[in-house]
Design brief:
The complex is a heterodimer of chains A (271) and B (334). Chain A has 271 residues and is mainly α. Chain A has eleven helices and no strands. Chain A has one domain. The longest helix of chain A is centred in the middle third of the chain and has 38 residues. Chain B is of the alpha/beta class and 334 residues long. Chain B has ten helices and 14 strands. In chain B, helix 3 crosses helix 4. Chain B has two domains: 211 residues, Rossmann fold (3-Layer(aba) Sandwich), CATH 3.40.50.300; 66 residues, 2-Layer Sandwich (Alpha-Beta Plaits). Chain B is elongated, with a radius of gyration of 23 Å. The N and C termini of chain B lie far apart (47 Å). In chain B, strand 4 and strand 5 form a beta hairpin. Helices cover 28% and strands 25% of the residues of chain B. In chain B, the strands form three sheets. Chain B has a six-stranded mixed β-sheet with strand order 6-7-8-3-9-10, with helices on both faces. In chain B, strands 2-1-4-5 form a four-stranded antiparallel β-sheet, covered by helices on one side. In chain B, strands 12-13-11-14 form a four-stranded antiparallel β-sheet, with helices on one face. The chains are: A mainly alpha (271), B alpha/beta (334). Chains A and B meet through helix 1 and helix 5 of A and strand 6 and helix 2 of B.
């Protein structure tokens, strides 16, 4: 527990935490404000689609779709940066030399990352909805749907599924950076894997639908929130049922953590 | 806790290779309890590999380690709860301040408050500054503070004087001596011979992955003691004949051309040398005595880079007019 709390403290003070949330919220705000501008002129191309994005309760779905889609990529890089820095800065070395269990240290660190992902998603969601409300007002769209009871009722389950899916993607970045023992290599490989999976979907759809990013997207594709369209195997979303995908998300999560922990247990720490 | 033979740390036949390169070749260390042990060796001799093995960062290919009287194998990590370590350059989160970094380290268990160790290493005033702004010496002090957090019975420090200013080195030396006086064992790896000479009680010298000498510093230096005496050239042979019954004598050169005789005996007998010469009407124009760890070190490690896998500087003429000259070759002039 002490290592977990210490891990949280370290992540709270870390610039990467703020940058990740800032990037997510910034891009979301940009899209929403751009949609508001496009939606203001009814004759403009795509105005109808833009207005649809800003119309509640549909805006909830868009914001969540964005957070679970692009948020997955951000989570990969965030977790890779943290796991990689443990090796490149040598801070894991300090803990091991003090008698700390390598496996427990890595798991506690990842648990802290999972909590930070939850906090980051919650902040991004709140800010995203706030910006969507402002954008809707700018575009002159009614926000009456913001209190739609059906949407609000299914929101907690959607957010929980989404968080789990994003955490799985973070675990993948965590494992890659641990294997690479490097921040940069981990981030680079994580991003390459994310987009590589999307490209592979074109040629190998039946295989890619079981891959980590595809199952993450499919697990939140309950028909309302949509699978998004932000890369990383989005086209495969829907190929698996959300519940099957959710199970596979769990398998990938556990598998990634097992790889990271086993590698750390066996590693010779020389940095 | 120590072994029955009073050792805090012992290794037997410790071997470690990195691929085809053999880093440690059957290292046998015996570190008594309650002393400052200086672990000396040239760059690449295997000091840091030894430290990594002693802290569980690496696992040996063969051999055994005993920490505080008990075997230390893969899976015996809890033995390290009583060990404080600073291995290689200290590592910290640059975006956290010194205090926060110590707290992060303390999450693995600490029995000394962070403020106490900050005070001990002189970082209290800068404890709230981000580590990214620390100098190398400050990071080193923070690393030592981190090693002391668990109030360890055995302290393993890898090159602790790195980056410290002279005042910091003196303060660190006093701190380590006090820790040893309080019954703790301090194991210091270093290539700074002068520092080890004033700090350590017991010294182990490693070269090419093997321990080449181990013992108390006093005994080692007494064996290595010399008295140098300078006499007029005309009296050189007579002086040599007088001194040879006392110990081995050799003639050494001098930059200004006057000869010196080097007598290999304890420095405390310098007056005896002088008296013996004077009794026969030979008056020394110069007399020096001392012990030289550096000389011993170079002798044991093979001078230049024989004891090292990393090589070292060579005294060469950059303009390309001279031949390479080993470091050991430049010595000898008194």
């Amino acid at each position: 527990m002490r290592i977990f709390i210490s891990g949280l403290r370290k992540l709270i003070g870390r610039p990467a935490s703020f940058v990740s949330v800032g990037l997510l919220v910034g891009l979301l705000a940009l899209i929403l404000i751009a949609s508001a501008t496009a939606g203001q002129s009814s004759g403009a191309r795509g105005a109808a689609a833009a207005r649809q994005l800003l119309t509640f309760p549909g805006s909830y779905d868009f914001v969540l779709s964005f957070l679970f889609g692009f948020g997955g990529l951000v989570a990969v890089t965030f977790a890779a940066a943290i796991a990689g820095s443990e090796w490149s800065w040598g801070t894991l070395k300090n803990a091991v030399a003090r008698g700390e269990s390598r496996a427990r240290y890595m798991l506690a660190l990842f648990a802290a990352i999972a909590v930070m992902v939850a906090v980051g998603l919650a902040i991004s969601f709140a800010l995203g909805i706030g910006v969507a409300l402002v954008a809707a007002n700018i575009a002159g769209i009614s926000t009456a749907g913001v209190t739609d009871s059906d949407t609000l009722a299914r929101l907690p389950a959607m957010v929980a599924r989404g968080w789990f899916a994003v955490v799985e993607q973070a675990a993948l970045g965590f494992a890659i950076a641990t294997l690479a023992r490097s921040q940069l290599a981990g981030i680079g490989a994580g991003i390459a894997f994310y987009f590589g999976e999307g490209f592979a979907q074109i040629f190998l759809p039946d295989i890619v639908k079981y891959m980590p990013f595809a199952v993450a997207r499919a697990s939140v594709d309950t028909g309302a929130a949509g699978g998004g369209g932000f890369g990383g195997g989005a086209a495969a979303a829907g190929a698996l049922s959300p519940d099957t995908a959710l199970v596979l998300v769990g398998v990938w999560l556990v598998g990634s953590l097992a790889v990271a922990v086993l590698f750390t247990e066996r590693a010779e720490i020389t940095g | 806790m120590t072994t029955a033979d009073g050792l805090s740390l012992a290794t037997r036949g410790l071997r470690k290779s990195y691929g085809k390169r053999l880093a440690l070749d059957g290292l046998d260390l015996s570190v008594p309890s309650g002393v400052v042990y200086g672990f000396l060796g040239p760059n690449g001799a295997g000091k840091t590999t030894t430290m990594r093995l002693l802290t569980g960062l690496l696992h040996p290919d063969a051999g055994t380690i005993e920490l505080l009287g008990k075997p230390f194998r893969r899976g015996d990590r809890k033995r390290l709860f009583q060990v404080g370590a600073l291995v290689e350059s200290p590592s910290f989160y640059p975006y956290l301040d010194g205090r926060q970094n110590l707290r992060a380290l303390a999450s693995a268990g600490a029995s000394v408050p962070a403020g106490r160790v900050e005070e001990l290493v002189g970082l209290r005033d800068r404890a709230r500054d981000k580590v990214a702004g620390y100098s190398l010496g400050m990071k080193q002090r923070l690393g030592i503070a981190g090693a002391l957090l668990s109030d360890p019975k055995l302290l393993l420090l890898d090159e602790p004087a790195n980056g410290l200013d002279p005042a910091g080195i003196v303060a660190m030396r006093e701190t380590l001596r006090n820790l040893a006086a309080s019954g703790k064992t301090v194991f210091v790896s270093s290539h700074l011979l002068a520092e080890v000479q004033v700090l350590a009680d017991v010294v182990g010298i490693i070269a090419a992955g093997k321990l080449v000498r181990e013992g108390t510093l006093d005994a080692m230096l007494n064996d290595q003691g010399v008295v140098r005496v300078r006499v007029a050239p005309a009296q050189l042979d007579a002086a040599r004949a007088l001194l040879e019954p006392m110990a081995a004598v050799e003639r050494t050169g001098s930059l200004d051309g006057d000869p010196w005789l080097t007598v290999h005996l304890e420095p405390a007998r310098a007056a005896e040398v002088n008296q013996r010469l004077a009794s026969q009407g030979i008056f020394a124009s110069g007399l020096e005595s001392g012990t030289d760890l550096e000389m011993l070190f170079l002798e044991l490690t093979g001078g230049e880079n024989k004891g090292s896998s990393e090589g070292t500087f060579r005294a060469i003429d950059i303009a390309g007019q001279g031949q390479g000259q080993g470091a050991g070759q430049g010595r000898g002039a008194a």
